[in-house]
Amino acid sequence: xxxxxxxxxxxxxxxxxxxxxxxxxxxxxxxxxxxxxxxxxxxxxxxxxxxxxxxxxxxxxxxxxxxxxxxxxxxxxxxxxxxxxxxxxxxxxxxxxxxxxx
Length: 102
Ligand SMILES: [Zn+2]
Known about the structure:
This protein is mainly α. The protein has helices spanning 2-13, 19-33, 54-58, 70-73, 77-92.
């Protein structure tokens, strides 16, 4: 008899979880959180893309050596192409890694 009442109490607690709150709102926030549009190379005082400058290119390469996609870096199509080219050149002269071995 006592156990039965216990079970009923548990059932009542189910609706109290805060999970529902986290769902949709968090996803929306994550989408808008990223960098604002605006290619860093299109601004006037931007440094030119140089394949001999691995420090400048580091930003556009992930830790594992992959080129960061445009939708993340926020670079315009034109400059993404030159960034890509610069990274590939830098790789062949061993300034940037093709991959990293973990
Ligand atoms: Zn640009």
